[in-house]
Design goal:
binds D-glutamic acid, six-stranded parallel β-sheet, 2 domains, about 15% strand, Asp/Glu_race, Rossmann fold, glutamate racemase activity, isomerase
């Protein structure tokens, strides 16, 4: 058992969608969330830079004595988790686009993946896509610009509606029946997605699976927190905390910190 915190980081506020899943499943755990919004988006930055930024975030969380780190960012996971696991001696949980469940369940034999350039160009993504693409059309779309809008509090804007129309129309034409959200910012688009997409298209992401995997790894390492005192949940951002605050329940406080 351990009452040390779980560390969570993302290029920005999107990983709070993962934190919500974690907190729902593991409400007794102390958590520290790091939003590197100053450096968002990670997607177009290239592998080396994404690795450097991920290491910076991990170093910060290790100084805070985290017992496990959740890389709540598909772009950082697909580009950097291998290096992180090689260099640090604590468990890491990553997130990748949920290609497998979509590919196994599609009836139309066509699925869509919306993710960042960094994720779609990664080796890890290519390998997983190759594994499940047999007999299935995978329509990949780079969600250029979506993360920036969410980071500026514009998840529900006209600009966002236009971007989604541009990115998703080819998928509808390709007759997909599953849309995979391959970026942790994208669950915040759910209202617009449900509005725009035909009802026959199911939307999936990996948030719940990440929470379950985190729990399993904590159990396996004997690291669950069994203390009954109210846990602490800290949220740090190196940009304007207002955006993160609006995504969090008002019981939780987003703080500015220059890291
Ligand atoms: N939330 C990150 C992800 O899941 C966004 C990456 C970015 O900043 O481009 O990929």
């Amino acid at each position: 058992m351990s009452n040390k915190p779980i560390g969570i980081f993302d290029s920005g506020v999107g990983g709070t969608s993962i934190w919500k899943e974690l907190h729902a499943l593991l409400p007794h755990e102390n958590t520290i969330y790091l939003a590197d919004s100053k450096n968002a988006p990670y997607g177009p930055k290239g592998k080396d830079k994404i690795i450097k930024l991920s290491i910076k975030n991990v170093e910060f969380l290790l100084k805070k004595d985290c017992k496990l780190i959740v890389v709540a960012c598909n772009t950082a996971t697909t580009n950097a988790i291998k290096v992180l696991r090689e260099n640090y001696d604590i468990p890491f949980i990553g997130i990748e686009p949920a290609i497998k469940p979509a590919a196994l369940q599609t009836k139309n034999k066509a699925i869509g993946i919306l993710a960042t350039e960094g994720t779609l160009s990664s080796e890890l993504f290519h390998n997983t896509a190759a594994l499940y693409s047999n007999g299935i059309t995978i329509v990949e779309q780079n969600g250029n610009g979506i993360v920036e809008l969410i980071e500026h509090g514009k998840a529900d804007s006209q600009e966002m509606k236009s971007l989604l129309k541009e990115y998703l129309s080819p998928m509808i034409k390709a007759n997909i029946d599953y849309l995979v959200l391959g970026c942790t910012h994208y669950p915040y688009l759910m209202p617009l997605l449900l509005d725009f997409l035909p009802k026959s298209i199911k939307i999936i992401d990996s948030g719940e699976a990440v929470a379950k995997q985190t729990k399993a790894v904590l159990v396996q390492h004997n690291l669950l927190n069994n203390a009954t005192i109210k846990p602490k949940n800290k949220f740090y951002t190196n940009s304007n905390p207002r955006v993160m605050q609006t995504l969090l329940n008002e019981n939780f406080n987003a703080e500015y910190l220059d890291f």
